[in-house]
Amino acid sequence: MASAHDVAAAVLAEVGRVTAMKLEKLVYYCQGWHLARSGSSLFAEPIEAWREGPVVPLLYRHHRQQLYVSEWPLGDPSLLTEAQRESVRWVAREYGRFSATELSTMTHNELPWRAARGALPESASSSQQLDVDLMRTYYARQMASTETAVAQATANAAIEGQEFDQDWQERLRDVASGLVDADDLIAEEIARLRG
User: Fold this and answer.
1) SS3 (DSSP) at 173
2) What is the pTM of this model?
3) What is the radius of gyration, based on Cα positions, of the chain?
4) Model pLDDT for residues 143-192, shown as the tens digit of each residue
C-alpha cells in the first residue's frame, strides 16, 4: 500500500505548487474517492478532523511552517498502482481548480468531517480521526444513480426530521441528473422560504 507521503508527491506531480492547506484537502479527497471507487484505502495513515478540515498529521508535521509546497521528497509517486494514480489524477482534475479555502468549506459540509467533529463548534480543536468506512460509504453514494441518490437524500432528510414531498424529490432528480445546479436549487429554496 502506498503511504500518505507517496500520495502527496503524486498530487504535487499533478497540480504543481499549492498551499499546504490545499495539499491536505487534495490528499483527503484522494483517499475518499479511492475508497469509493476501489473499496480499499489509498494509504493507511489516519486523517483527523481539524478546524480547517481534514488533515493527515503525518503530512502536517513535514509541511508546517510552509505556506506553499511544490515537491514532496519523502514520497514516491511511482509506488502507486495504476488504479491509485488514476484516483489521484481524477481528484486533481475535479478538485484542483478550487482554492484551499473552497476545499476546506466543501469538507466542512460533508458528512465524514462533520461526523468526526460531532457537536464540536467549528472553532474548536480536534484530533478525532475520520472514519474510513464512513468515507467509503459517503463518497460511494456520490456515484449513485439518480433514483438511488434521491432515495438516499430523502431517507437522510427523514432521519433529520425533514420530509421531501414529490415536488421536492423531482427537483432533486433534476440536480442528480445535471439539469439543475444544486446551488441554484438552494438559492431558489431560500428565496421561497423568505417569501
Assistant:
1) helix
2) 0.78
3) 18
4) 877 888 788 888 888 888 888 889 888 988 888 777 888 778 888 878 87
3-state secondary structure 9-77: HHHHHHHCCEEHHHHHHHHHHHHHHHHHHHCCCCECCCCEEECCEEECHHHHHHHCCCCEECCCCCCCH
Position 111, amino acid: L
C-alpha span between 80 and 90 (Å, rounded): 14
CB-CB contact of 59 with 4 (8 Å): yes
Cβ(81)–Cβ(88) below 8 Å: no
Contact 25, 113 (CB under 8 A): no
C-alpha cell at position 123: 472553532
Cα gap 158→151, rounded to integer Å: 11
